[in-house]
Amino acid sequence: MASEEETVDQRKIRVAVIFGGQGPEHSVSCLGAGNTLGAIDRDRYEVIPIGITTDGTWVPVPDRPERLALTGGELPSVESAAAEPTTGLATREPAGAELEPARPGRIPTVLSDVDVVLPIIHGPFGEDGSLQGLLEMAGIKYVGAGVLASAVGIDKEYMKLIFAGRGLPVVRHVVVRERDWPLPGAGEATPESKRVLDAIAELGWPLFVKPARGGSSIGTSKASDMGQLHESIELARQFDRKVLVEAAVDGVEIEVSVLEGVAGGPPDTSLPGQMMIEGEDEFYDFGTKYLDPEDRMAIPAPIPAAAADEIRRLAAEAFEAVSCEGLARVDFFYTADGKILINEINTLPGMTPTSYFQKLWEASGLPFGQLLDRVIQTALAKRPGLR
Fold first, then answer.
1. Taking the complete model, does pTM exceed 0.90, yes or no?
2. Which of 161, 245, 168 lies closest to 203, judged by CA?
3. Given this model, what pLDDT does residue 69 score?
4. CB within 8 Å of 197: residues ≥ 6 apart
5. Which domains does the chain have, with CATH numbers?
């Protein structure tokens, strides 16, 4: 927390932007950080970029957004962005001391001198409540969902359980744990693995298989027969021991961005957008999301107005069902017969130049810089510690 000797009214608000991390979405986080650094209002905020390397070390990173951009097809990393001397990045205890790297498991002391943290870390140890709990224990305010919502939001099994418990429509699915799935040639199936096999059979073909606690479509694939299903589960297991197998939905993908309501009001929702997946693309995969410069979303979604209103209502309900705070993106399927299904909620949505979280808000009349200002101000209004 910032020093009481100098009030926020007398200086700029100090914001630590934390990005990178140990998960497979490290580069996505870096892209989002670069985009954020380039958009945040520097007349109002003093920004302190802090990267977490793939081994968990917290390091200072130059305040240079171009070093966190996609360059020549190469994805950025904290290690590459920090690979030059930093200047002007200092703590104030003691005054003038440079921010030193903090080894894994320890946070840099500079965080004790900021007003708020803006985390842009996806996946494990960043989006799952780990970082949020650390900041709460340290009494540091931060943008976004708290520990519970973060943990629920990243675990698709429990996310769907809560949605279903609140009466929200979800996609039919089966959770596959390590003990549930026999590898080819592993011998006779156990009663538990047979139950899982029978449940998967009821879903029909094709199926989509994904890590239960992953994002950015990393480790996600489509299976059209038993052989592909085995391959898809093994691929997903490279990123998470728990795997989600979902029935394919014959419909279009719709996304809605959500912001915590102002002064305790209900959540605000953006215009819905529809993913335009064409040609050989099976689904909106990692390459299409981050490496393809083509805009793949129609905003507003070309669906009936009544369906768009219902999707926005369900997005707000999903936000509140998991006790989300700050910001989120909720993804849906809309079928040809007008059925709406919730796919998932993202409690720390991507903020890369190609991400649709901010594009949906821009189309709804809220530019990215103002969007960042709103989520920061929302976080500053909260009490530090347990939410």
1. no
2. 245
3. 93
4. 189
5. 8-142 (3.40.50.20), 153-169+251-367 (3.30.470.20), 173-247 (3.30.1490.20)
